[in-house]
Prior knowledge:
By secondary structure, this protein is an all-alpha fold. It has one domain. It is built from ten helices and no strands. Helix 3 crosses helix 9. The chain is globular.
Amino acid sequence: MKSLLHGIGTLLKSIQIALVGLGSLGVLLISFLDAAMIPLPGGPDAAVMALSHLNHSRMPLYVAGAIVGSTFGCLVPYYFGRSTGVAALRRFDPAKIARISSLLDRYDLWSVVVGALLPPPFPFKLFLITAGVFSMNVWRFLVAIAIGRTIRYSLEGWMAVRYGMQATEIFKQHYPKIGLGLAITIVSIIIVRKFILKDSELSV
């Protein structure tokens, strides 16, 4: 079993290296596979930062490839949930499912944006499957993923250009705080906006 797992790990690493060599197209494919629940070692984060560091002028292309690949890759777990229904959720913790369902019901698009920003251990893949199970509008789903991924990968590209080889380590150390901070900011804006709209409706 150990030799099998080692072989699979070596294969995935070789695929990652080969795809990184394709530049922005490779980043797109890595991001698609990662979002489609076939993660490669390092994933799109490492690919975006490594390539952006090596070629500053092409950083926007690497970021764009990651955004497009991840956005459409997220359709795989979404449609898995949509086609399978509640059966897709049987192996997950019912309490987590209930919380995610409540977030999707209350905040719709913005809950997915926040989910795309939050660092582990937030169960983002479960979030994607649940969005499909409860038939969230697919266009709103795609827009939400694109917004969240644009923020994440743009930040990574900027960090790679700004901090060079240290970017990956800085990202690992500080992104949980940054991601949580961005999520709190978005939630705060939504809450304030709801209060403003509610007050305006009462005053009419």
